[in-house]
Amino acid sequence: MKAIQITIDATVNQSPEVVWDHYTNAKHIVNWNFASDDWHCPRAENNPVIGGAYFSRMEAKDGSFGFDFRATYDDLIPNEKLVYTLEDGRKVTTLFEKVGSTTQVTTVFEAENQNPLELQKDGWQAILNNFKRYVEEAKS
Known about the structure:
By secondary structure, the protein is α+β, with helices and mostly antiparallel strands. It has a single domain (5-137), classed as Alpha-D-Glucose-1,6-Bisphosphate, Chain A, domain 4, CATH 3.30.530.20. Helices cover 26% and strands 43% of the residues. It is built from three helices and seven strands; from the N terminus they run βααββββββα. The chain has helices at 16-24, 26-32, 117-137; strands spanning 5-12, 39-46, 53-60, 66-77, 81-86, 91-99, 102-110. The chain has a seven-stranded antiparallel β-sheet with strand order 1-7-6-5-4-3-2. β6 (91-99) and β7 form a beta hairpin. The longest helix has 21 residues, at 117-137. It starts with a strand and ends with a helix. The model has no long low-confidence stretch (mean pLDDT 96).
């Protein structure tokens, strides 16, 4: 059975180089990698090379729930593309495309089978929207 793919995107008012740095650098990941203000990302580690590992911890600020997010990089082109496999075997591809003075960030991920598709899409999109806001407000 072929996996269902979900696409999310955002246009970030920064160059691909700045967007890439904020997307891949653990010191930045902890500042944007959550879907709402009642969550946070207290820890992240990232080694963006083929075969390298990605790890982040997402938790509700009230301590009621949390989970680890782990992946291994399968392919990447700095400032352009990341492809990784999640711990459960699902694939994720994120593209960074320069469009004028902005960067179009598009992520395609394979849906899991425990939550409704719309919930998954909304959650991933909320995190990407938080990323956009963080990058546009951050002082690199």
